[in-house]
Structure formats: C-alpha cells, structure tokens
Write a structure and sequence with these properties.
Elements: E1 21-23, E2 29-31, E3 47-51, H1 56-67, E4 78-82, E5 85-87, H2 96-103, E6 106-108, H3 117-125, E7 137-143, E8 149-152, E9 162-167, E10 171-178, E11 196-205, E12 210-213, H4 215-219, E13 221-225, E14 239-245
Length: about 250
C-alpha cells in the first residue's frame, strides 16, 4: 500500500506519564552576546498576547483530541500537521541517498479538524483574520522538559498574522532582533546565517493564551524555545502549541 499521508509513516504513540483580554506583553529585553552594545527596549513591535483566549474546559477537550491522534515522531519533539503538504526530517546518521529519499517524499497532511473550528471562529470574531484570510494550516508541537526549537522566522509564503495558542503549560519564547527582514525558516538553511542586532527579549507564553505576530515581530525578529531549559518543569510537564498560518494569495 502506497504511503500518501503523514499518518501512514507512524504508529500510535502513548505518552509516558512521568472574558478574553488583549495586552501588549511588557517583558523587558536585554542585549544578547553579540554585538555587545545594544540598548534594551520592550517587546518586538507587532507582537501581542491575548490572555485566556480559551477556557479550561475547551483546553481539556483540545488536549484529549490531540492525545488521541497519531503524532509525527521523526523530530525530538512530537508534532502534528493539518492542511497542506509536509516532508520528513532525515536522521543525522542517514546516508546522502537515504536523506534525499526521505526529505524528497511529500506527504499530504490531514485537513483542518472540526475540533479547531471554534478557535478559528474566535480569531475571526476578534479581527485577527478576515473571511478571505482564514488559517489554512496548523502545526502542533509538544514540548517536554529540555526540548525546544531553534531560532527562526516563519516562512514568507505565509501571511500575517501568525498565531500560536499555548496549551497545558506556560513557557518563555525568546526573540532576537535581526538587521532586516529575513525569510529564514527552520528548514531553509538561512536562519543561522541571519544577521542579528544583538537585541533579544524573553516573552512569557501563558497557558491558554494566544500569541499574535505581525509586522516586525513576524518578519524581522527570530523566535525560539531555548533547548535545555528545565527550571520549574517538573516530571510530566509539557507545553502544547498550535500555530495557525494562512498562505499569501498570489
């Protein structure tokens, strides 16, 4: 049987048990290691956090739905994809031919599930999207203690805003200011080469909050979840993020 959907490549995984308000986040920024002389400011322009975007019951229902799915497991963190197509990440030990075969296989992700519709409707009602720019794609990431994602900018094929809903646990996201706009997504190979100004800031992503990235925050600042951070993350801690994107219409 041919494999045409991402779920065809993985087996079910059982995880081991071990009134909304909008506000500009005011966490303070500080200079990063290079360059060394940078004046600190507040958060990136265009970044906002909507606290309590969903309620505890809705969060519980979402997590129950997600935990029942078949997750992608070729990365250090578990992921789910909805909408569009995706390719897998080859292991570091893979030969060049095996790597080319794995990364060249295009998989069709599942359609946006009806369980997400109330989130999309709420984003529409709050003016984050319009009927012409409804999110078509969602990637779900699960972070457990020590896991993270490298600094990057969302691919420019996606428009604005990019919205990320946090479930299960609170964590910090680190932002790095770039010298200019840079389309350095995780897999582009350009992220590590992007020139930084040295300015950075950590923004707290609270449980059940929605992060909204527009303008400079979306195009001229890299964001990451720093790997190795375990402070305050006890056994069983996790953060699940749902990142919604809409493709730029040509």
């Amino acid at each position: 049987m041919s494999k045409t959907r991402i779920h065809d490549y993985f087996h079910p995984y059982t995880r081991k048990t071990t009134t909304p308000s909008t506000s500009e986040n005011t966490e303070q920024c500080k200079p990063s290691r290079k360059p060394s002389v940078v004046k600190a400011t507040s958060t990136p322009p265009g970044l906002s956090i909507i606290k309590s975007f969903i309620d505890p019951i809705e969060e519980t229902q979402l997590l129950a739905f997600l935990d029942a799915q078949t997750w992608r497991t070729d990365l250090s963190r578990r992921t789910l994809h909805y909408g569009g197509t995706y390719c897998l990440m080859a292991p570091r030990s893979a030969s060049p031919s095996t790597r080319a075969q794995i990364e060249g296989t295009i998989l069709t992700a599942a359609a946006m599930p009806p369980e997400f519709q109330f989130i999309i409707d709420r984003m529409l009602s709050q003016g984050l999207y319009t009927p012409d720019t409804i999110p078509e794609y969602c990637i779900v990431n699960e972070y457990t203690p020590g896991l993270g994602i490298s600094a990057h900018v969302e691919n420019f094929r996606f428009g604005e805003p990019v919205c990320a809903l946090t479930l299960a646990g609170t964590d910090d996201m680190r932002f790095h200011e770039l010298a200019g706009e840079n389309d350095g997504s995780v897999r582009s190979g350009k992220a590590a080469k992007a020139e930084r100004t040295g300015k950075r800031c950590d923004v707290k992503l609270e449980r059940r909050s929605l992060m909204v990235m527009r303008g400079e925050a979306r195009r001229s600042w890299q964001h990451e979840i720093v790997r190795g951070r375990k402070s305050g993350k006890t056994l069983g801690w996790r953060r699940v993020s749902l990142t919604f994107r809409t493709e730029v219409k040509k």
